[in-house]
Amino acid sequence: DTFLLRFLRTAKFDQSRAQQLVDNFCTVRSSPRGSPEWFEPLRPDLPALEHYFTLPLGVLLGFNDDGEAVLYFLLSAYEPDVFPFEDFIRCMIRSSAERLLSDQRLQINGVRMLVDYRGAGQRHYRPWEDPKLLVRVLRLWQDALPMRNKAIIHYNESHMVDLLMKIFLPFLKEKVRRRIIRCGANSSKLKQAVGPGADRLLPPELGGQNRPMAELIADKARQYNSESAKQERRRLDQIRVDEALRPAATKNYLKSTEIDSTDSTSMGLTGTFTKLDVS
Known about the structure:
By secondary structure, the chain is of the alpha/beta class.
């Protein structure tokens, strides 16, 4: 099954961890304890969606020479006064995240998040200062998506980022903390952080040779409206969780995936793997 294979790849075929990823993925989408409102279908005429497709947020720059995806976010592009932050999250998930989840390169090689703070002011940081919202976003990103998080790259960051990191760090897994890269305004550090092939990936606005940012942004709407993306959204929209059928220990299941494979709350029976010498 191609759907389950996504989670097995992400978990490096650790069955217990893959199983928990699936449980988290389904719970976040459908349980009141998750964030089901973020996964509701978007109306084509939703102003927030139309606006999102014009912004340099969730832009896939491409894949570096190691096969890792590079996603670009310009923090100052989101204006809180234009549309609610929850609508922004919905648009980002429905138009970017879900489209990319079917790409096995994100499951095997992973993704590098490039956050550009150029032009960002206090109003752009404010939505991220809500601890409850932050927990929901990070829970989805760290524990419920079939993709490997390889790096969080901070570029053009100001002193405000130091304050933001004090809020973020307690909610980040240790492995993710180690993969935070601070570049300042140093373009050489940026290219090193993006990885091999950075010149090919970065647009001219970031000192690279890729297509202009405006063209990369335009790709978002085309990909969202493609027939394959529509079919994928229809399949994912069918996901439901019947909590009445779950064991008591796993009601509204949401748990970190960095756990021992013998965890007692595992759904059903865990499997084992024995290597056979057939030589």
